[in-house]
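Hello,

Our lab assistant flagged a job as stuck in the queue for most of the afternoon. It eventually completed. Since we weren't sure the result was trustworthy after the delay, we are filing this so someone can double-check. Below is the sequence as submitted and the structure that was eventually returned. Let us know if re-running is recommended.
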Amino acid sequence: MTQSTDPGLDPEDRKIITLARSARARNGVPEGAAVRDDTGRTYVAGTVELPSLRLSALRTAVAMAVASGATSLEAAAVVTAAGAVPDEDLAAVRDLGGPGTPVLVAGPDGTPTRTVTAG
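-- returned structure --
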């Protein structure tokens, strides 16, 4: 697994990209995501695809943070081949982190492609 070597990327942001990439690879799912709360705890998830429940990796990671008592987010990362982050995913990040929460988007190899805000 290669790690992003973007020199401008904060080490904590690089960490959540790496965790998201690991979740995607480990579970063989289309997306992996990780979020970091305001205390520095991280929550990692992959896409959930059951007959009765479908959740993106990012919404699953946000739900895990909420279920664990997080009250705010500092940042989120999603590793995906799709390249785009659906509005519903950004809304989940915004609900917990606020409109300025950065969402780091990376390709399957972990290379960051862009940062969007949840706003």
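-- support follow-up --
The delay was a queue issue, not a problem with the job. The result is valid. The chain is about 35% helix and 30% strand. The radius of gyration is 13 Å.
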